[in-house]
Amino acid sequence: MVLGRILGAVTGDAGRVEPADLGPRFAEALLPGEQVLAAFRTVRDGFALTDWRLMVLDRQGITGSKTTILSIPYKSIQRFSVEAGGTTELDEELKVWDRSGADPLEFGFRRGSGAAMAAQALLAERLRGA
């Protein structure tokens, strides 16, 4: 288990974390009363599913001190997919397309962590009500 976490940190595989682990800039971007349903983090970046949007944190530069926070309301998400790892793959991937027509947002997960399925289940639940 510890080895898996170390490998995930080195390779950038996302894993489920506490919302506070995404840092103070993430907390500042939340609206009063907005609830975080789940948060996921890679080595530098992360994303969260709140009660009304998907928030993506993109840290830039060598130190990661400059952070872009992308907000996508659930009503703007058109589709998503989960690519589950096979016997030789070590990762799974969640892709999310929004109405902008841009390339999908892609989030990599370590296979077997359960994070990809947890993220897609929450996303499906939120989109069902959107």
From TrEMBL:
InterPro entries found in the cross-reference section: PHb, PHb_sf
Transmembrane intervals: none
Cross-referenced Pfam families: bPH_1
CDD domains (alphabetical): PH-like_bacteria
Domain (Bacterial Pleckstrin homology) ranges: 10-116
Coiled coil: none
Annotated protein name in UniProt: PH domain-containing protein
